[in-house]
Every structure is written in structure tokens, then in C-alpha cells.
Amino acid sequence: AKASGRNTLRRFDPVMQATVNRRVRTEAEVRRALEHMEFEPYYQPQVDLTGRLAGAEALVRWQHPHRGIVPPMEFIPLAEETGLIFGLGHFMLERVCRQVAAWTSVAGHPQWCVAVNVSARQFHHPDFVQEVFSLIDETGAGAHQLQLELTESSLLVDMDDTISKMKALKSRGVSFSLDDFGTGYSSLYYLKHLPLDQIKIDQRFVRGVLDDANDAAIVRAIIALARSLGLNVIAEGVEDRRVQSFLANEGCPMFQGYLYSRPVPRDEFERFFLNGELL
Ligand code: C2E
Ligand code: CA
Ligand code: CA
Ligand code: CA
């Protein structure tokens, strides 16, 4: 058994070694990229029924010196596993808070807020609430202009911790959106117990509403549920004018997707509101 074990190991060795190498290389690279500030938030506008800017979601982009822009799915899971998400998450929160404060000083207090994605590990770090409060204080960002996007996986970790943290942050004006709604477990349980402000309908349902009767039924039900619970609701992944019409007819007041804009760098995003008209 030992010999065959060794053989088996040797047989898979090249593949395993490549995986390990890539992982180690990427972990080292993410660490280096953090030190060299190669990450940057891009902003994707969210619009209301009249097409006006109603918010934005900050999405991290890695401007790699050789590989160009690396999408988050290629390093966020690794950052979560290795704990680098604490540094990366802090960096994103700080950059967004500074940006929000800068926009406020040129454009006055906008009615909309910028949403930042927060990983489960980051949210459940014992210092998370204090970290956000310190950033708000240091940057002068209005807490009302900061929204945190959590996924159900965050909520699953520790419900009591989640609720007490949300309440503390909300007491300063920070709001909460539940991302990827409908794709996790026990969604209704969370809706009943958590002090949420908004739910975000996952794009996997949104995309299908015109072709798939089940997607349409699910989206209709989520919108009705959100409204009856007094929560705002936003649909992500809107790529088609007719999808927006469907959603609007069902009572969804906010949209995000390629139909309006892809996530764009700060200066491009500023044209959406500093130069007056959106779109
Ligand atoms: P997410 O939070 O669900 O973000 C929405 C994703 O859908 C983004 O991909 C966005 O670019 C994309 N998207 C927006 N509108 C459309 C559309 O109309 N059609 C299509 N096909 N896609 C659309 P992105 O930027 O690649 O981010 C992927 C995921 O990476 C995010 O999913 C989020 O889970 C994670 N992520 C991104 N930035 C951060 C961050 O700063 N921190 C953490 N913890 N996670 C992040
Ligand atoms: Ca999100
Ligand atoms: Ca999402
Ligand atoms: Ca997601």
C-alpha cells in the first residue's frame, strides 16, 4: 500500500506541484500587490426608474503589471483562504471612504451611497466595527453614504455576531444590502431576523426573466417579499431594456447592470454625476 501510495503521489505530483506553485505564487503576488497598491476600486452605477444615478457598487480590480486587469474571482477566494482579505478588505473600505468624502466635497451630499462587498471572514473579525468607525472618522466620509454588501455565507457564520455588528454600524448610519439573494439557504429566516436595508436579486435569476417562467416567478416573488417587509430591492445583471421593463412592472425601483454601465474607474464614474446627466 505504501509503494502504491508513493506511486500515486508521483503520478499526480506534476499536477499537484503546479497547483501548489500557482497558489503560492499567487498568494505571494497578492501580498506584493497589496504592498504596491496595485488594487483599485471600480464603480458600477445603480440607477432608479427615471435612469438617474441612485448608487454605486465598488468592485475591486487588480491592475497587474504584466497580466493587465485581473478579475476578482481569480484572487478573492485565495485572499479569503489565506487571510489576505483583511488587508485587501481594509484597503477597499479605506479607498471608498476617501472617495466618498472627496465626492461630497465637490458635489455636496448626494442622496446615494456606495456599496462595498464585505467577505464573511472580514465581517466576523472582532475589530471589524471599530475598523469601519475609524475609517469613517479618519476620512470624513458620511456613514450614510456607505453601504455594506453581505452574502448569506457571512450570515451563516454567527447570527448573534452578525446582528450585533449590523446594529452597531447602523447606529452610525451605515446601511446593509444582502447580496446574491435567492442563491443561499434559509433566506427567509435571515430576512426576519436581520436589520437589513436592501436585498439584491442575484443576476442568475434576473437574466432569465424573459425566457424562463421559473426565473420570472422567483424574481416577482422576491420583489413582492422585499416590498412587504419594507426593504429596498435592487436587481443586478440587468443587460436588456426589456428586462428592466419587466422588473419595473413588478415594482423593482433600482437596477444595476451592463445596460447602464460596466464597472468603471473613478474618473469615468465621475462623468455619471459630476457632469450632470447620467447616461
Ligand atoms: P458580486 O458582488 O455579485 O458583483 C457583481 C458582479 O457582476 C461583478 O463582477 C460585476 O462586474 C458583474 N456584473 C455587473 N453587472 C453585470 C451584467 O449586467 N452582466 C454580467 N454578466 N455581469 C455583471 P466582478 O466585478 O468580476 O466581481 C465578481 C465578484 O467578486 C463579486 O460578485 C464579489 O463577490 C467579488 N468581489 C468584487 N469586489 C470585491 C471586494 O472588494 N471585496 C470582496 N470581498 N469581494 C469582491
Ligand atoms: Ca456585490
Ligand atoms: Ca451579487
Ligand atoms: Ca457573488
Q: Give the averaged pLDDT, no decimals.
A: 89
Number of strands: 9
SS summary, helix count: 12
Q: What structural class do helix, strand and pairing data support?
A: alpha/beta
**Global outline:** globular
Bound molecules: ligand C2E, calcium ion
Organism: Thioalkalivibrio denitrificans
Protein name: cyclic-guanylate-specific phosphodiesterase
Structure in words:
This is cyclic-guanylate-specific phosphodiesterase. It is a single chain. The chain is an alpha/beta fold and 279 residues long. The protein has twelve helices and nine strands. An eight-stranded mixed β-barrel has the order 1-2-4-5-6-7-8-9, surrounded by five helices. The N terminus is likely disordered. The structure holds ligand C2E and calcium ion (CA) (3 copies). One calcium ion binds next to loops.
Descriptive keywords:
8-stranded mixed β-barrel, 9 strands, 279 residues, cyclic-guanylate-specific phosphodiesterase, disordered N terminus, alpha/beta, binds ligand C2E, 52% helix, binds calcium ion
Question: What is the topology?
Answer:
Layout: H1 2-35, E1 39-48, E2 53-64, E3 68-70, H2 76-82, H3 84-107, E4 113-117, H4 120-123, H5 128-139, E5 146-150, H6 152-157, H7 159-171, E6 175-181, H8 187-193, E7 198-201, H9 203-206, H10 213-228, E8 232-236, H11 241-249, E9 254-256, H12 266-273
Parallel strand pairs: 2-4, 4-5, 5-6, 6-7, 7-8, 8-9
Antiparallel strand pairs: 1-2, 1-9, 2-3
Helix pairs in contact: 1-3, 2-3, 3-5
Bound molecules: ligand C2E and calcium ion (CA) (3 copies).
